[in-house]
Amino acid sequence: MLVGEATESAIVARVSRLLGKNWRWIRPLTRRYLNRFGTDLRPRRKDVVRFLHADDGLAGALHRYRGEIRIASWLSEPASMQPAPAAADWRIPALESVGALAAWLGVTPSELEWFADRKRLNSRKTQHVDGPLAHYHYRILAKESGNIRLIEAPKRRLKQIQQRILSGIIEKIPVHPAAHGFVKSRSIQTFALPHIGKRVVLRMDLRDFFPSIHGARIPALFRMAGYPEPVADLLGGLSTHATPRRLWTTLGKGIDVEHMIEARALYARQHLSQGAPTSPALANLCFWRADCRLAGLARSAGATYTRYADDLAFSGDPRFERSVSPFAARVSAILEEEGFAVQHRKTRVMRQGVRQYLAGIVVNEHPNTVRADFDRLKAILTNCVRQGPDTQNREAHPNLRAHLQGRIAFVGSVNPQRGAKLRSLFAQIKW
What we know:
This protein has helices at about 10-20, 25-35, 45-55, 55-65, 100-105, 110-115, 120-125, 155-170, 190, 215-225, 230-240, 245-250, 255-270, 280-285, 290-300, 320, 325-335, 370-385, 400-415, 415-425; strands at about 135-140, 150-155, 200-205, 305-310, 310-315, 340, 350, 355-360, 360, 370. By secondary structure, it is of the alpha+beta class. The longest helix is centred in the last third of the chain and has 17 residues, at about 370-385.
């Protein structure tokens, strides 16, 4: 039974039936239980056991009536889907046992346990971090700021399992209207369009977005969806990862020591990995409450709010412009309360007198690409026509043609006229 749906009388009746008698201490214990778990959805069994062990009232009753309290009849019920009221309409598959989950994913229960790695055996083994028994490939990227980004790409079989979870469950759960990244029918264009022609635009960036989402949030999300605890825990284990600490001795050469120590501590705990197909959609869902709070704050200030992954945008007219600095401070406070941190050096307050841009799109009067980026791409295409494409692949792209086509498509989606000019140049290249 979900605590949110439980009533005091219903719990008292169930416990009384279990013990064969309506002891007078049951109702006060029930009230303390509801005070502790009343806002939770299907609390974990271990948390309930810990609560009962620590309850002085129950301890006193067991001492006073020792020898009299006994189990009259076990209330054994099969596990079932018990979604929260908000999740009642989610069209997700009913997976009520570990066996059902394994069958749905096309693996055996033992394989399911191995890939979920709930005991973190994979991160503690002494084999090479990228060896045959590891579930992930790793790549360390050092940012210009000195911070570290770790790409954790799941291997083929785990990736297939995650893609099945993504398409079969996660994508069927609605995200907040303000979220535009990694959402079907939404894009950077829909992220930027609400801010066109505004008096002031505030752009903020989150730090370490994926690894800052603790792994414990993911099973809680699946429990809210209605999955029994063993199933939710396995789904959480399949969707999160704890990076082996020994990785940094293998791949961390040449990286600033202080930043490496910080990154090692961050990635050592269970987290959403940047590289898993499930991570972006799960991050959106975990950010739901923060989105609600930020959208409400924006409305109260007369502003508009949208988010694309870890990029946050707020915009408004003179009223918002007058309060934009204290507003940004309040946003930072809300994010900190929700377990996220702002990359303050990337915060920008952009008024109409300067270029206002979001995710590479200029939003001052109408959507447009940054002129310098357009001119640079146009120069590359012109040189490809005159000197050949091999002379322009300075960044060693494995498929320069596809890379240029992608950049041209982006420009065309924002500004069709500029896109047409670039496509005309691209057509003249001799590959």
